[in-house]
């Protein structure tokens, strides 16, 4: 462990953070670790089909300027072993087991999109494990339009293929000039890491995660009033993947939740507005 920590401290940014593994039962989970050791770590949970290279380095580096940050891959995604779960319940149980395998008694969670579904479920399953919760581009179980994410996404994925653009251009950002500039900048940032990149998700894992998302959208609403820890919610005002109305719904249902909505921004509102979001997140975590 000490050798690992010494190695980690040599990484000055997310693009250089080494790939590490921890076994949860018989399954190896890959993660990257950055920032000052000690204190309550921030665990990052990412979107549908995302691997470690899909975390925005500006957000990771910004959070890691003050906090111990750990980005993880779900079971069966990227270089993590096993088969991708088809329920949010299983993903949440995996994440709880992974956090405990890393030796942490309490963490902060930042969940984006699918990661926000998982983060909510973790808090409801293990409330003593989570100190603070950040939910971005996400929605509650049974939330409006969540079960339609596949119907919304497939045409835009095809558009990406036909226009030779990453589909996230259309899925995560608005079609305005501002949105297109933000999309290009974000996608360029995702290419900053040159060595030790993660494995791409398999089509099977991608489809299994979609099944989990659809089931979450059809699931009975959870009692979000049971979430009594501090919560920060952020999204763009034009999210087509997890409609923005879900962010407002969560803010109403979670006692004391703070809501930030970015203008002319979509699903990837926190990426487009990372220069504003990171200070807000740091302030929230420090309060």
TrEMBL record:
The keyword Hydrolase applies. Pfam families: Abhydrolase_1. GO terms for molecular function: hydrolase activity. The keyword Ribonucleoprotein does not apply. Signal peptide: none annotated. Keywords: Hydrolase. Residues 41-272 form the AB hydrolase-1 domain. This is Alpha/beta hydrolase fold.
